[in-house]
Write a structure and sequence with these properties.
Elements: E1 5-10, H1 15-30, E2 38-44, H2 50-64, H3 72-79, E3 82-86, H4 96-109, E4 115-119, H5 126-135, E5 145-150, H6 157-167, E6 176-179, H7 186-196, E7 210-218, H8 227-252, H9 261-274, H10 283-286, E8 287-297, E9 300-302, E10 320-325, E11 337-342, E12 349-356, E13 375-381, E14 385-393, E15 401-409, H11 419-429, H12 438-456, E16 463-467, H13 473-480
Parallel strand pairs: 1-2, 1-4, 2-3, 4-5, 5-6, 7-11, 8-16
Antiparallel strand pairs: 7-12, 8-9, 8-10, 10-11, 12-13, 13-14, 14-15
Helix pairs in contact: 1-2, 1-11, 5-6, 6-12, 8-9, 8-12, 9-12
The protein binds 6-O-phosphono-beta-D-glucopyranose.
Catalytic activity: D-glucose 6-phosphate + NADP(+) = 6-phospho-D-glucono-1,5-lactone + NADPH + H(+)
Pathway: Carbohydrate degradation; pentose phosphate pathway; D-ribulose 5-phosphate from D-glucose 6-phosphate (oxidative stage): step 1/3
EC number: 1.1.1.49
């Protein structure tokens, strides 16, 4: 269990706090992962009493938490640590109440000044808030101070760099915890273990034995209530710049020298340095974009993206991206990495498929006269697990071959922690391993920027796909050109 701390949550009346942060804190508490003394200061623009705030936390836990409230006594023990401060975060004068709530806690319990600042607010406020934290003396701590921020960090390299420079006037790199919640997912963290704790995979994990890799993050939801953000962001910035490239780094990185944060970050950063950059002139060959049209999902009619609330009726925003990527180093030379993500697709699924090369000579054939490849499938969400597709003899047949799956399910017997539980816990204990380093963010933007520019100039078409489908035709052509196909998600 960690030392006592205070956590200031800016944006405590917002969606992220409600859906993810309060439920995660409650799970940590119920799993005895929080210290006896801690203080949560929720900060918002709306007037609320401490009591009203605590009730809002209760509602959020009841609606969204993995672990439910079963006894009132533990709930009271938990919630008494929550207080609320109203503040206009842009106004430096608004911070005095936050300060007195924290200092009151620290002196009452005689605990070290360990402070976490969680910015669950729009990124254009990151610089202002970290500046105001400094001018108010909140950052003068004898213990630690840490800043937790969410993606998107900027909308391109230049804006991300500016934010980074500004927050670094108050916090150093070692004090900045940039959340990419995919890195908090159990099975994303498991990629390293599968690779580096099993002697059967590592020898095969290279261009000699791997034909291609496919990374899918598909969603059935549409833009929902987020058009104001999403119609400017698009899937490239929303999903590819962060989550998909993070999964790519986990699959491609070299074994770290030790299981230490710096060693792991170094290896991940090297992957992005080896990632082949596409010029605006090359984008059309390797990256496709799509936008959903009306369709039927789970038996319900759904509207086209352009007909969604608050979306421009001529919007060129992509809700789908597929790309063929190459990591130009000795391990991965020539191996295509196909990534795709989209809204309103056929299923909600995040998974990684490693497709192995075929046997040098086929002695056996299935009924289509070919031998299917071996696959290692890492399922991340909603099912968590791994399975391997192997070829075996069809029972009773004359050497006919069928594929079978050897399966392991990670979340079948008991629920696994939510991404935010492990990430908040890591921030409290000071483990930055599963947070993104500034160099990862900046290199990812440098890869993304030319693609964005090519699309903004409309150098390549925006393709359309029916809601409930697996993206536009062009996404299938991208693989067919190499003699590959997308494996259906499991
Ligand atoms: C977020 C994106 O980062 O990830 C959303 O902003 C997306 O658009 C979400 O829906 C997907 O996360 P998950 O955990 O549901 O796969």
């Amino acid at each position: 269990v960690s030392e006592p701390f205070s956590m200031v949550i800016f944006g405590a009346t917002g969606d992220l706090a409600k859906r993810k942060l309060f439920p995660a804190l409650f799970s940590l508490y119920m799993n005895n992962l929080l210290p006896d003394a801690f203080r949560i200061v929720g900060v918002g623009r709306t007037q609320r009493t401490h009591e009203q705030f605590r009730q809002a936390v209760r509602d959020s836990v009841e609606q969204f938490a993995r672990i439910k409230v079963t006894d009132e006594a533990s709930w009271q023990q938990f919630i008494k640590n929550f207080t609320y401060a109203i503040a206009d975060v842009k106004n430096p004068e608004g911070y005095s109440e936050i300060k007195s709530l924290i200092e009151g806690f620290e002196s009452h319990h005689d605990v070290p000044t360990n402070r976490l600042f969680y910015l669950a607010i729009a990124p254009d406020l990151f610089a202002t808030v970290s500046h105001n934290i400094k001018v108010n003396g909140l950052a003068n701590t004898k213990g630690y101070k840490r800043l937790i921020i969410e993606k998107p960090i900027g909308h391109d390299y230049a804006s991300a760099k500016e934010i980074d420079e500004q927050i670094k006037r108050t916090f150093s790199e070692k004090e900045i915890y940039r959340i990419d919640h995919y890195l908090g997912k159990e099975m994303v963290q498991n990629i390293n273990v599968i690779r580096f704790a099993n002697s059967i995979f590592e020898p095969l994990w290279n261009h000699h034995y791997i034909e291609c890799v496919q990374i899918t993050a598909s969603e059935t939801v549409g833009v929902e209530e987020r058009a104001a953000y999403y119609d400017h962001a698009g899937a490239l910035r929303d999903m590819v710049q962060n989550h998909l490239l993070q999964m790519l780094m986990m699959v491609c990185m070299e074994p770290p020298s030790r299981l230490k944060t710096e060693a792991i970050h170094d290896e991940k950063i090297k992957v992005l340095r080896s990632l082949r950059q596409y010029s605006e002139a090359e984008v059309g060959k390797y990256v496709v974009r799509g936008q959903y049209q009306a369709g039927v999902l789970n038996g319900k009619d759904t509207p086209a993206y352009r007909d969604e609330k608050n979306v421009d009726s001529a919007s060129q925003t992509e809700t789908f991206v597929a790309a063929k990527l190459f990591v130009d180093n000795l391990r991965w030379a020539g191996v295509p990495f196909y990534v795709r993500t989209g809204k309103r697709m056929g299923a909600k699924a995040t998974e990684i498929v490693i497709q192995f090369k075929e046997m040098p000579k086929n002695l056996y054939f299935n009924k289509n006269n070919d031998l299917g490849p071996n696959l290692l499938v890492i399922t991340i969400n909603p099912d968590e697990g791994i399975h391997m597709v192997l070829n075996t003899k069809k029972p009773g047949s004359d050497n006919q071959i069928i594929p079978i799956a050897m399966e392991f399910c990670n979340n079948c017997e008991q629920g696994t922690p939510e991404a935010y539980e492990s990430l908040i816990h890591d921030a409290i204990i000071g483990d930055q391993t599963f947070f993104t380093h500034w160099e990862e963010v900046s290199l990812a933007w440098e890869f993304i920027d030319p693609i964005r520019r090519a699309w903004d100039q409309n150098l390549y078409p925006l393709d359309f796909y029916e809601s409930g489908s697996w993206g536009p035709e062009s996404a299938h052509r991208l693989l067919a050109e190499e003699g590959h196909q997308w494996w259906p998600v499991t």
